Amino acid sequence: MSTFTKPSMQKSSRDDAEQLNRAFKGLGCDAAVVVNILALRNASQRDSIQQEYETLFSDDLKKQLAHELHGHLKKAVLLWMKSPIERDVTTLRQALTGPLFDVKAATEIICTRTSSQIRQIKQVYTPTFGTRLEYDIGCHTSDDHKKLLLAFIAITRYDGPEIDSVLVEDDAKAINKIGVKKSGMDESTFIQIFTERSSAHLIALASVYHKMFGKELRKTIKREASGNFKYALLTILQYAVDPTKHYATVLRKATKGLGTDDSTLIRILVTRAEIDLQRIEEEFLKKYKRPLPEVVHSETSGHYRAFLLSLLGSKY
């Protein structure tokens, strides 16, 4: 369920484009106008505004926003103005090759996307950056983590609800027999199961594994695996079992302790705002006993704060 809230009186895309252009005039940008317009427009409306802006002013709105805005607000607004596939492609490239190398962001995007979405990502990635996603993964990840990511983007997985009960039991036995091997050893069985099986299969596997051997699959991974390989396995499993709980956990880690992981905070709020952010909010409150808007308010400031709170549908 989306947190997106339409304004009470919807203006035309032309009006929005004209207001934005006025906000760019003079000394500095009127960021409040940018936030009040763009944070309250859905994807279709944002596309229309961009088209109107180019028609009226012969300029690219995203380029103008990049020139006028700064800091975290700039990053959040520019990501908001992209399509879902463009967001993934841009974030993956920055995470894998940018100055702020963020292997967890790259892992999370890859390991929470369907085969169809990954196919679209690869189709856009190569012409955009002149290199294949496989190449960047190969150059900037290593060992079993690299093997898992490359397998995950190469395989077409079934996304439906049906499962093969016999195969589920076979996988549970294989995991119990082999486990997650010591560092430097072959992880082929785990990689095969976690990259080839559907979400429904993994949900059943976690249940059957517990019933057959009295162990939690998640705890087995956390105990035996390490580093980025462990993070990838847990991401695949947790997202399959409960996407909203997965994102609530990611947001908690991004806002817990000293400092805020603004890149993660922006990525999750922007990419989930028009999908399931309300359910993520509910899970966050249930699990951590604090409203997500309250946490965002305490961790951010200024127009950046106002923009994120608008995505949350909050006037906190």
Automatic annotation (TrEMBL):
A GO cellular-component term linked to this record: cytoplasm
A GO BP entry: response to salt stress
Residues that span the membrane, as ranges: none
InterPro entries: Annexin (IPR001464), Annexin_repeat (IPR018502), Annexin_repeat_CS (IPR018252), Annexin_sf (IPR037104)
Pfam families per the UniProt record, alphabetical: Annexin
Superkingdom assignment: Eukaryota
Keyword Secreted: no
One example GO MF annotation: calcium-dependent phospholipid binding
SUPFAM superfamilies attached to this UniProt entry: Annexin (SSF47874)
Signal peptide: none
Keywords (A to Z) from UniProt: Annexin, Calcium, Calcium/phospholipid-binding, Repeat
Family: Belongs to the annexin family.
UniProt note: domains: A pair of annexin repeats may form one binding site for calcium and phospholipid.
Protein name as catalogued: Annexin
Source lineage: Eukaryota, Viridiplantae, Streptophyta, Embryophyta, Tracheophyta
